[in-house]
Amino acid sequence: MKQLMLGNQAAARGLYEAGCRVVSSYPGTPSTEITEAASTYEEIYAEWAPNEKVACEVALGASIGGARSFCGMKHVGLNVAADPLFTASYTGVGGGMIIGVADDQGMHSSQNEQDSRHYAIAAKLPMVEPADSQECLDFVKYAYDLSEEYDTPVLFRTCTRVAHSQSIVETGERQERELVPYQKNPQKYVMMPANAIGRHVVVEERMARLAQLAETTPLNRIEMNDPKVGIITAGICYQYVKEAVPQASVLKLGLINPLPVGLIRQFAQQVETLYVVEELDPVIETFCRANGVAVTGGKELFGLLGELSQRKVAEKLGQPVPQGLQFGEPVPVRPPVLCPGCPHRGLFYTLHKLGVMVSGDIGCYTLGALAPLSALDTTVCMGASISGLHGFNIARGPESAKKSVAVIGDSTFMHSGITGLIDITYNRGLSTVIVLDNSITGMTGHQQNPTTGLTLKNQPTPQVSIEKVCEAAGVKRVRVVDPNDLKAMEQAVREELAAEEPSVIIARRPCALLKYVKAKPSLVIDPDKCKNCRACMKIGCPAISSFSGRMAIDETLCVGCDLCKSMCAFGAIKSSAEVEQ
């Protein structure tokens, strides 16, 4: 049957059809929907793990137990999973194991623009890269066969444009796989030095055999057209090349580690001018040049930054550049912003008002760095807010702890914030940590986490208490505050900053977009009482604007959270019910 599918949905369908039994992931755009879609199949056990390292270890354990398994993450999540990733290359697998990683060229939802192909090279693992939704399905199935035949985990790399674009997919039936019988084999799975030395030999032999496979696999193919121009490419760049330069000859790579040196040389001999079109780093180009293949154009044409496109490829290769729709006037910039009713807004307003240094983290609350809230000083990676603040305060002395806080979300706290908090208490630090508990994993689209009391499949489960975790970590001062209560929020921050010991404030209010959170009637501004002081603008709510010199609230956006109402000293902001009275 043919269906229109997102790349991520098609990858999940590939998991289903290939007989995958166990999926463990951590949500991260643009990879999230693979696991969400996989969870809709009853035959697949699917879970959200607390972080990517745990997810990779669960998938490896399931593989050793004989099941086909998968773990998914975004590119920066692969950093977190790197520890088990590198060792899994040595242990090999039982049942087939795939590690899905979605890169984010252009940084649409990420803090950096790293190229995950380097992990495949460094860990000495095969990596496949699909170019459309059909290949997402097909390459997953191929990767499982490859995993089991060569006794190796396989990296499955996508990117935002493949993961989140749709194309036609022909689906098939599920092929059930019996568990691979488990046999105790410490030489293979116990990675102490004596055993690891022997397994390293196996890894190198495996890579040599995979290099031979790269020359003949159907994932790598030559498409000969005009021999004047030849282009080596992979993934989404293949689509750009086919649209921008349809007459060119193309070597399309699907198995991108190891690369096929013989096939590349063969293709280079068949064309007059050779280009390499790839996003981010010159992985393919460097391989070509290192093996004596002359490349006319690569990164000196296409650069190291951001995404490519049909237009960019056409322009750089001297082809007619497609002209898109031209608007008669500039389109206004629409910067990202915290949603109306966001529970983080009141906290960030308070922190900005108090002028404290704020060590930030990854999630919706990163938007607190933007004007007019302008609250965050740093954002590095998951969990770094807490441990980073500890280091900041150690460097600057005890007085610094009275003027600085860390902010971290509930899901991120479970992911990697707990260890930073333990570091503070264990080493007698004085830092104040604020956990922004909005009862969901927000930025990636509302996934459950250990603090919500529900699993990925919405089954009830024990709810991890943030308060008790903090107490168990050695924090004696733990308090819960509603961040929309500005007076209570400010009092809590002031008191905990003054304390002579570590403290945690849990700013608890559910995300305004959760289905069970009912919006109140929208607020309105009484023009007779409004003094146009613009105090309500200080919270940066997108529902509030100034039009023709008058303040206004957009009733289609306002959720009636009352935060702006508490900002108005003149009683000009009222509920629609109050106005009707």
UniProtKB/TrEMBL annotation:
[4Fe-4S] cluster 1 binds at residues 530, 533, 536, 568. One of its GO terms (molecular function) is metal ion binding. [4Fe-4S] cluster 2 binds at residues 541, 558, 561, 564. Its cofactor is [4Fe-4S] cluster. It comes from the Bacteria. Binds 2 [4Fe-4S] clusters. In this family the first cluster has a non-standard and varying [4Fe-4S] binding motif CX(2)CX(2)CX(4-5)CP. The keyword Lipoprotein does not apply. Gene3D superfamilies: 3.30.70.20, 3.40.50.970. Residues 521-542, 549-578 form the 4Fe-4S ferredoxin-type domain. It is an enzyme of class 1 (oxidoreductase). Keywords: 4Fe-4S, Electron transport, Iron, Iron-sulfur, Metal-binding, Oxidoreductase, Transport. Its EC number is 1.2.7.8. It catalyses: indole-3-pyruvate + 2 oxidized [2Fe-2S]-[ferredoxin] + CoA = (indol-3-yl)acetyl-CoA + 2 reduced [2Fe-2S]-[ferredoxin] + CO2 + H(+). Catalyzes the ferredoxin-dependent oxidative decarboxylation of arylpyruvates. Heterodimer of the IorA and IorB subunits. This is Indolepyruvate oxidoreductase subunit IorA. It comes from Candidatus Anaerotruncus excrementipullorum. The gene is iorA.
